[in-house]
Input
Amino acid sequence: MVIVSDDDVLGGEPRIDGTRVGVRHVAARMIDGGQSPAHVADQFDLSLSDVYEALSYYYAHIEEMRELERENEAAFDRVRESSLKPKETVQ
Output
């Protein structure tokens, strides 16, 4: 199997085996970024079949991928919100 999940790598998100390249990373480059599969393969040092396998996994598990995206966005929002608040000072 090319796509694996391991709690110790990428927080358990599905990724290409033997790499730290997540399925969502590949999908984002192709879907949101409009990059070609060959370009993504070159940028991540992957085989073209790995890229297509990741994209296939993404679409076969679209609800899981969307939930991971929502969780990631919520975590980013929490971090951003806490970093924008001024530090409380002790008097």
The first strand starts at residue 3 and ends at 4. The two ends are 59 Å apart (CA to CA). DSSP finds four helices and two strands in the chain. The CA atoms of residues 30 and 39 lie 9 Å apart.
